[in-house]
Amino acid sequence: MKVFKILHKPTGLYYTPSNGYGNLSTTGKIYARKPSLTVCIGGSIRIIIHEWNPRPFSKKLQIIADYFGFKKDEKGKCWVDTHINTPFEDWEIVEL
User: What is the pLDDT of residues 3-46, one digit of tens each?
Assistant: First the structure.
């Protein structure tokens, strides 16, 4: 049985539909049928970073912060909750 995931090529993270943690994850959603990028992605993704501690970002958040240009402030805090338009060329449907 073929299964699929949607890969964000620049970050190496996968798309996952989410209401509270953003749309990029290390595991991603598994699709039983080949998904459509226009239906799933729709041209934008949601980025959420809520870090209130001065400790370093997790590996996933560091990848997102580096690629999209988010930084912690002088107190070590970062609060981001935004939608970012991404070109469809940045995405790839990967067969597992």
Answer: 999 999 999 999 999 878 899 999 999 999 999 888 878 878 99
Note whether 86 and 63 are within 8 A (CB): no
**CA separation for the pair 52, 82 (Å, rounded):** 17
Instruction: Tell me how far the alpha carbon of residue 39 is from its chain's centroid.
Output: 16
Q: Which two tokens stand for residue 6?
A: 């949607």
Give the C-alpha distances (Å, rounded to integers) separating 5 from 62, 74, 80: 22, 37, 25
Q: Which residue segment(s) compose the domain that 70 sits in?
A: 4-87
Task: Report the number of distinct structural domains present in the chain.
Answer: 1
Tell me the pairing of strands 13-15 and 91-95.
Answer: unpaired
